[in-house]
């Protein structure tokens, strides 16, 4: 059993236990369940420069502890102030050290910024959890789900007014799982079985993703040259976490990168 299979197996067990503790319909009574959702897709379409989705991540199976003591409300507020178009907050505890409390604190600190609940979604129950936490976007990972599960969960997410980010790793996953209830397609440059990164994966799939979907590149994004090249190939969003979180001040690291990207984009456009 590889690490992805272990994560999914644990997540299914975790969800089963959660269902015993709280009924799905009870989430609808939570205060944030009825809040209007914010569109990450719209925010990324409107940006003239590469749009950063900044991720709050404490640890990962491949890197171990990245930043154990960071405060989500402080870091994410800094991300927003630094120009992030959206936020991603891990809620998986067992493998990534995230919590619902992390998400809630980030939500309270960033009421006007689109937020992605970053987790391994395998059950409709988790969509109701996400909605009650104040999430705007949920992640569906093609490698964890069947095409039918992707369609069913994406449709239900839209019924709950949540946007859907479909994550793929290759052309086969894209072909089998892309459906009309997906809003954004994220190409993960990290192999979830080996955790190695290969940013050329995003370039290889760029022309395969229809332009009706917002294109997002994920993982292994460390330098402006790579990001600008992907931007020229149609990617509008860039999900970055570890690059920021491993620094002493993640918000400053993001602001520096965003300013560099904006200046580079403006410089190139002045010659067009």
UniProtKB/TrEMBL annotation:
It comes from the Bacteria. It catalyses: 1-(2-carboxyphenylamino)-1-deoxy-D-ribulose 5-phosphate + H(+) = (1S,2R)-1-C-(indol-3-yl)glycerol 3-phosphate + CO2 + H2O. This is indole-3-glycerol-phosphate synthase. Pathway: Amino-acid biosynthesis; L-tryptophan biosynthesis; L-tryptophan from chorismate: step 4/5. One of its GO terms (biological process) is L-tryptophan biosynthetic process. SUPFAM superfamilies: Ribulose-phoshate binding barrel. Residues 4-256 form the Indole-3-glycerol phosphate synthase domain. Its EC number is 4.1.1.48. InterPro entries: Aldolase_TIM (IPR013785), Indole-3-glycerol_P_synth (IPR045186), Indole-3-glycerol_P_synth_dom (IPR013798), RibuloseP-bd_barrel (IPR011060). Keywords: Amino-acid biosynthesis, Aromatic amino acid biosynthesis, Decarboxylase, Lyase, Tryptophan biosynthesis. The keyword Cytoplasm does not apply. GO terms for molecular function: indole-3-glycerol-phosphate synthase activity; phosphoribosylanthranilate isomerase activity. It is an enzyme of class 4 (lyase). Pfam families: IGPS (PF00218). The keyword Membrane does not apply.
